[in-house]
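Subject: 3-dehydroquinate synthase structure
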Amino acid sequence: MSTVTIAPLTESLPAFLDAHDFSDIAVIVDSHTARFCYPELKPLLSKHTLIRIKAGEEQKHIATCELIWDGLTRANFDRHALVLNLGGGVIGDMGGFCAATYKRGIAFAQLPTTLLAQVDASVGGKLGIDFRGLKNHIGVFQQPTTVLIDPQFLTTLPERELRSGFAEIVKHCLIADAQMWDEIRRRDLAEQDWAVLVAHSVEVKKKVVARDPTEKGLRKILNFGHTLGHAVETYFLNQPRKRLLHGEAIAVGMVAEAYIAFQKKMIDQSLLTQIEEYLFSVYGTVRLLDTDIDPVLALTLQDKKNRGSQVRMSLLSGPGECAFDITVTASEMRRGLEFYRGLNKE
Ligand code: GLY
């Protein structure tokens, strides 16, 4: 596992650069981080190349990678160069993928600027891009040289972005720490202690990834809520309706998958009710139409945890516990989504 440092970049970045001898440095930003975050970084670097891409999940494809590889090539970067990915999950996943494949791989550091990227995407070395409308369909596992988390960046985030990142914190508590779940579920979003929760999520994720870096088994628990959540997110990505942020879709997935675990007698009614009530209180409801269900179910067949055409989920087996490789049928998933829609309450 790479080192993860939670500190102001003014401290962590000079220390990291002093300990290495990189031939060149590129900073990858999008239009948001160019404006809100790059001004903090720029004074800490001497000569460097700035590569700027458009913001948004819809940019996370191979054509944007070509722009990044082009920037590195034009600046004559050799194999001793460093890429700094300054941004959220899109920049980290795609910038890391470009660095991991440029000249068969150069060093890269994740400088996550959103809560979602700080508590999840930047840690663990999953890199990649979307393809033909499927999320993270093309990619590699490659650990970053380091992850530098500056808590200051959270102060510039819109509340909707904080709420989206919070879904991954909820997931980490539900799969690994019942006591922390009990603490966060008694507070609303505005009352959460981000410093404590970022450090907690990083620790949960680091421990799991250290035991299974390439997701052969245990790491699949980090995908609780993501089989249906990713399918809902992908479906909405290709719809004219309002876009869903990642965490908003994962909240849908966690409620529906908690119901599937309840149906399978893996969790009891009280845990299901806690999860449902808390997630609805923080995220409200996403309107799913009857006609949305079949296309969402079809998308679950592309999930990376599946075996052939069998959908395999990571499902809660108690508060703070998660099992993986659980085979789930289309009708179980349908009932999970119907429970979410309020149609299947028991
Ligand atoms: N986001 C889940 C993982 O990194 O494995």
